[in-house]
Each structure stands twice: as C-alpha cells, then as structure tokens.
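Allow me, if you will, to draw on your knowledge of protein folds for a short while. I have a record of one protein: its chain in single-letter code and its fold written as discrete structure tokens. Kindly check, if you would, that the fold set down in the tokens agrees with what the sequence suggests. Thank you for your consideration; the sequence and its tokens are set out here:
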Amino acid sequence: MALGRAHSVAVSGVHGQIVEIEADIGRGLPGVHIVGLPDTALQESRDRVRAAVTNSGENWPDSKVILALSPATLPKVGSVYDLALAMSVLDAAEDVPRAKLEKTVLLGELALDGRLRSVRGVLPAVLAAKNAGWQRVVVPDSTLAEAGLVDGIDIFGAGSLRDVLAWLRGEVVLLGPGRRSRNVVVAGGDLSDVVGQDEARWGLEVAAAGAHHLMLTGPPGIGKTMLAQRLPGLLPPLTEQESIEVTAIHSLAGLLSDDNPLIMTPPFVAPHHTSTVSAMVGGGSGMARPGSVSRAHRGVLFLDEYAEIGTKVLESLRTPLEDGEVRIARRDGVAIYPARFQLILAANPCPCAPPREADCVCAPAVRRRYLGKLSGPLVDRVDVRIKMRPIGSGGFHAEEPECSADVRARVAAARSAAAQRWREFGFRTNGDVTGPLLRREFRLPYKTVAPLDDAIRRGQLTARGADRALRVAWTVADLRGAEAPDAGDVGRALGFRDEIRR
C-alpha cells in the first residue's frame, strides 16, 4: 500500500479553506474512487486527471486508487483540484520528490493533454493559502497576474502538468509574476458632458461626497443615465485593501482581465430591468456565485427604469443595503459575499413618459402605481431624491459646465474631513455612520435639528429617515468646509427627501 498527499483550496464566497488530498494506491480492480463530498465536476475529474497524467508521459497506477479530500464534511466544488489530484497520485507512486510538494498549494484544471487551464477564484484561493501560512502556490500561467496581486507568498505559474513535474524534480524554474502597477484610469465620461441640471448635479455631488443612495426621476432623454454613469468618476480611487476585495469578487464571477486584473476604480454595475433575484443578489446551483450587488461592492449599482423591475427583486436589496453583505444558502453550503455599494435609482415619471409632463395621458392612479414599486422601507433608505426637469432653450448657450475633476476635488476634501471625524469609530463616510452615534456623540443643538423633529411629529419622516437626513446634513457641511451642520444644512437635507411625491 502506497499513500501520497497534495494540497489545494476550496473557495466558499470570498473565503477559502485548505483541502488536503490523499491518494491511496492499493489492491483491487483498476479504478479511481473520489470521496469527500465531490460535486459532478470533481467526480468527472477522474477521467481528466488520468488522461492528463498518461498523456504527459507518466505512468498511471494499474490498480485501485482512492482519492480522499479532507475536511470530509466540506463540499468540494469545481475543477480547481485537478492538479493536486494528479500530484497526490504521482506522489503515492513515488514518481515525484516530496520536499517541494508538501509545502506547495496547487491550483488549476487539467486538460486531457496535460495543459493547465485557468479556474475562477484564483485570487481568494491564494489569499487563503497565504493566511493559512503556506510558503508557495502554483497556478496556471494564464492567472499568474491575478495571483501575483497577493504579497507575502511565493507564486509560480505553469503551463502544463509536465512543467510542474519538471519543477518539482528540480529540472526547470517556473516563472513568477511580474511587477504590477497602479495606473488609475477614470472612466465613465466627464460631468461637463451634462447640459444644465444644476440641481441634479448638486445632488450627485452630495451623494458622492457622503456615499449616499440617490434617486432620479424625470422624462426620457433628460440625462438620468448620463449623471449616473459619471458618479464613479467623482469617487476616490480604491485603497489597496478595497482593490483586493473587489478584484476577488470579480475573480469568482470570471470577469477579470488576464493582463491587468487589479480593479483600482469603483465598479459601475447596471443590470437589466428584467434581472431576477438570483442575478441581483447571487445564486446558481451548487455554490452560489456573486450577483450584481456584490459585483458593485465599493462602487455603484445603477438600476435604470426601476419601475419596470419586479417587486421581489427590488425588495431583495433591503438586506444588502442594511448589512453590506449577502448570505446565500445553496445545496453545497452558504456563500457570504460583501455588498457595500451606492445605489442609484432612475425612472420615468409615468408609463407614457412624454417629454412634457403636461402631455401625460396616464390616470393619477396609474402614475402612483408606476412609481410605487418601491416599498416604504426601501425608499426610506434612499437619502437623496431628485426630480429632474427639462432644460430651457438657453441651456445650450450657457457657460461651460463644471468638469468632473473640479467636483472630484471637492468630494475628496469632504470625504477626507468625514474620515478624520469618524476614524476612531471605525467609519469612513457619512453614509455609513450609525444613528445612535450621531445623536449621542455628535449631538447638534435643538435649534439646528428642529426641522427634523417637526417632520417626525407631523408623520412626514420616520426615525430612520431622520437619521439619514442628518447624515446628508453632515455631508453638506463637509462640502462647504464647516465643522458641523447648521439649520440651513438640515433644511437642504430634508429638501432632498421631499423632492419626489410618491
């Protein structure tokens, strides 16, 4: 009886766990048996791995082979284990030296001819190996740039099973990742492209400065989508840690570029209005994959024509908006994905949507039902609401609109002031601050918050809405360089909540 061992990584959500793969070559009829809760793709790896080994010039054992993946209670999903499975069998057959193998994590899918193919989730898998204290990891060379985003662990890329075997035997040297750069490219158009709409531009600036959610309504062609697309250009670049978080999610979704995988700017995700709940929050068979809310993590989720989106899909946003993450239970386990994003909603005022509101032929009940797709609890989480109006004929002859660079500088200054203020409490933006903190540690004079108290007393504002209006007031104060909001800032924040009549 011969026993071999290799190691790989099981990824669940954005987290990974080291998987030990043991190969036992014993007596019995020739065959391969995999145990340890494998899924269909992993069960099929028996034939892939055997063909890859023989086509690479190695001998496959002519007897019974048992492959055990541990922890045995952890579901194993996908083809990422192929390379480790092959190495465990060859180790059991004493065809490879054990010195390097026992300290190396192996990732990658094998083709029948022994080529090493890329797999999803390489970045979170390498992070898991590093956090578990492993010295080195071997990945397909096509994912070398992605794996190289992780520091503190030796990373090698291989093109085939032959390359890995030659490296383990000391015959060749595998290449490591090259130097990576952080060239931040601002995409999405410039704010100077938007003609007129001073009020909407101001609302967009407030939303960017405080990480507040935004709602835009108005007739078609007025510039709602243009404004939404320019919000990422007003936001500061992602930090190193945020870039790794966002890139790991996009790695699991299979959306990374092979040449320059690191995402350094806030992502902009705009799902179609026919998207399902699974497409929005994540899902799929086996282990759930990230949805639109997770792909928009640290960026912007834009829902155009939200009045056409299903009610269940819209209501599924409530938990991510409140918790900043989604938990999806499926057959193979519970996947946890971060989902801290800025939400932008846009819609026409009614189904017929004429250029002039006076030409609308919709009944009042139809108009109310059209924009009433958002429930009270969901719309209460939207801090800035703007009703856009058609520009006058003089709008095209006005002076040059302000560009994104100028607005971005003010946003950066406001965010810096907010980050300094909330640093000891663990927050970075006004939109993330809790209501109790604002009311206790940063209590404002009553004459300043009197409009909020009056709105609550008259039933026009909920307690949660008051907290959110207070956060917007702090953002307005940061934009004008004040140390604290005054009554005027609170009034402006309330004005943002009163713009849309539902």
User: Anything to note?
Assistant: The chain has a mean pLDDT of 90.
